[in-house]
Amino acid sequence: MASHKAGNLIKKTKADQVFDVFNILICSLIMLIMVYPLYFTVIVSLSSPEAVASGSVYLWPKGFTLEAYQNVFRNNEIWVGYRNTILYTVANTLYCLGLTIPAAYVLTKKYLPFRGAISWYFFITMYFGGGLIPSYILNKALHLVNTPWIMIVGVGVSCYNLIVTRTFFSSNIPDELYESAYIDGATEWQSFIKIALPLSGSILAVMALFNIVGCWNSYYTAMIYITNQDYWPLQMVLRKILILGETAALSLEEMSKDEQEWAIRQSQMVYTMKYALIFISSAPLLVIYPFVQKHFVKGVMIGSVKG
């Protein structure tokens, strides 16, 4: 009670109050800067193409219409891209976790022969890369070019993810647990599956989230290695629509008046369709993130601080 009364007697000075107001204003401004682009994407996708083209859409939709979303859902290429992206994301995440987690576990074992050399074998990739041309030649020799497999097995182990996971294993799972398991006759695989994995839910969620976000947003690999549009991920379909929006109104002087009006209308429609597709492609990650946020924060903090 006494401490409670003492706490009530402590009053903030004017400087403290000004500082609090200043912090609230700055945080509100940062939040607005972060949220408004997504909000703008939504209101543009719900506005008429004419209102968007006139530049009058700022705070709320004008000429409310779902035409952009109807065009998106009628486009078969978008559904194919969505299917491919989901397939690539799930398969690549499982592939990366299947390589990263066991590798990180093994590198925590002090009795592993040449542990330092093996660690540097991974770490050196953070500083040196083979470059685009050698990578293309290698993937072509492996018959991965222009196949879905380049999106699944093209990238396996991220060295940063490996370091974070290894730090988590070494600093959060006591060696005594492994020693007691070895005394009971457990093998390395049994100690990994029955001890390490069950105690690593937070770091597994973090690594899965890192891989999901990276793979979902990836377009560079597909742009370099995949020419068959049947294998394109959603981001490549979005890129194609963006390019169409920039070129749809070209060479208007060579068209008749009716053709010009049609081309302008198509260009405006592609513009709103672009924003609708941006929102649709971002929606899955926006839905997933709140459910893994607590694991994300916990895993990053625990896996990044030793002790």
TrEMBL record:
Q: Which residues cross the membrane?
A: 21-39, 86-107, 119-137, 149-169, 195-219, 273-292
The subcellular localization recorded is: Cell membrane
Organism domain of life: Bacteria
Topology in membrane: Multi-pass membrane protein
Which keywords belong to this entry? Cell membrane, Membrane, Transmembrane, Transmembrane helix, Transport
Which positions are tagged coiled coil? none
Provide one Gene Ontology cellular component: plasma membrane
The record, for InterPro entries, names: MetI-like (IPR000515), MetI-like_sf (IPR035906)
Q: Which Pfam families match?
A: BPD_transp_1 (PF00528)
Q: Where does the ABC transmembrane type-1 domain start and stop, copy by copy?
A: 82-292
Return the protein name.
Answer: Carbohydrate ABC transporter permease
GO BP field? transmembrane transport
